[in-house]
Each structure stands twice: as C-alpha cells, then as structure tokens.
Design a protein that fits this description.
Number of helices: 4
Largest sheet: 6 strands, mixed, barrel
Distance between the termini: 8 Å
CATH class: Mainly Beta
Structural class: alpha+beta
CATH topology: Barwin-like endoglucanases
Radius of gyration: 18 Å
C-alpha cells in the first residue's frame, strides 16, 4: 500500500473511532445523562440511584459461554456458573428475584454487568440462571424482575455484594478507559455508574473505540 493510501486509511480509521466515541452509530450525538452511560447504536441509559421498590417485566435472555473470565462492566470476571445478571439500570450489587412467567420458576441473582442492549429484553443472565429458570434451551423467556430489599438479604448475599462493589471500584481506578458491558461485547462511554450502596464509579473514554483505532492502524 503506498504512503498516500496508508494516510487516507489511517485518517479514515481515526474518523471511525471518533464517530464511535461521539455515538455516530445511533445518529445525532446524544447527551450522556447524569449517572448514566451511552452505547453507540443502542442509546443512553441512566443508572438508578437505588433499587428500592424496583419491579419490571420483559424478556430475559442468557449469554456468555465464550466469555468466561472476561471482565464484565463492573470489572468482575464473567463466571457462567455464577448466579449473576446484566441489567441496564440497576446498581451493581443489587440482588433480584427473577420469575419465569412461563413456568413459575424463580431464581435469585445479583447484578454485575450492563445490558442487554436489544429491544424488549430487560436482563441477560448467566447460563446458571437460565438453567435455574428453565429457559436455557429456549434462549429467552418472559420474566418478572423484583429487587430484593437490603433488609431481606442473607449474610452471604451482603458479603457478595460488598465484594463485587470493591472489585468494581478497584477496576475503575486501575482501568479508567476500559469499562465494557456484557462480558466485553459492548463498549460504554460517558459513564458514571453506581453500586447498590451508592458508591459512584466514574469512567472515561471508550476502550473499544480506541482499540478499534489501534487495530486499524496496526494493519496499515
């Protein structure tokens, strides 16, 4: 590839990365909401300050067979066998009861990731949760998600929430440009995230877009 061609491609790559950082994939750039984040091509979301009284219905899916060990949006390594879910707005460390409205089965799980960024879906669950709820083979199921009050949590659940919170805080400090969602499938931008005890986690530029630019330049 000649020098002029390399230069044109390089600037094209820079423009593409800049576009992703600005949210061009979803049309006009959207203002990042306070205590929230945006996902290019999917929209912007505000994280709830508290999960108290939260109840919602929608479609649950499951994810992650190829993502074991990859960081979730909270920084906690993805574990397909853990009772964990991705949710767009509930604080990290929130424990919820999930009921499969098709068969009446219940599962208790904790939020440690962001997503799912697909129309109509309210949570993405680990395979362990999907098995517990009986929809692993079907892929999705209609569910009701209810936040469990802090006063009703067991000692083990409280410890798990505190552990995940500390991991999230430490991860944000060590990797200020690497907050991902759904075990690395999406890159978030303009993030101010929140844990279940109110700890705020500020995160900067999207790692995914920067990596894309480096990949482009690395192949010139």
């Amino acid at each position: 590839m000649n020098r002029a061609r390399r230069s044109a491609v390089a600037w094209g790559g820079i423009g593409l990365a800049a576009c992703l950082l600005a949210g061009c994939a979803s049309g006009p750039a959207r203002r990042v909401p306070p205590d929230g984040y945006c996902v290019s091509g999917y929209g912007c979301y505000r994280v709830l300050a508290s999960a108290a009284g939260y109840r919602a219905r929608g479609v649950a899916s499951w994810y992650g067979l190829r993502s074991a060990g990859r960081p979730t949006a909270s920084g906690v390594p993805f574990d397909p066998n853990a009772m964990r879910i991705a949710d767009k707005t509930l604080p990290f460390g929130t424990w919820v009861d999930v009921r499969n409205l098709r068969n009446g089965r219940d599962a208790v799980a904790m939020v440690d990731d962001r997503g799912p960024f697909y129309r109509g879906r309210i949570i993405d669950a680990t395979p362990a949760v999907a098995h517990e709820l009986g929809y692993y083979r079907n892929g999705t199921a209609p569910v009701r998600v209810t936040a469990i009050p802090a006063s009703d949590l067991t000692a083990a659940q409280r410890r798990a929430a505190r552990t995940d919170e500390q991991i999230a805080v430490d991860y944000a400090k060590r990797h200020p440009h690497e907050l991902l969602a759904e075990a690395g499938r999406f890159a978030l931008r303009g993030v101010v995230d929140i844990t279940s005890t109110g700890v705020r986690i500020a995160v900067g530029i999207v790692w995914g877009s920067l990596k894309l630019l480096l990949d482009i330049l690395g192949h010139l």
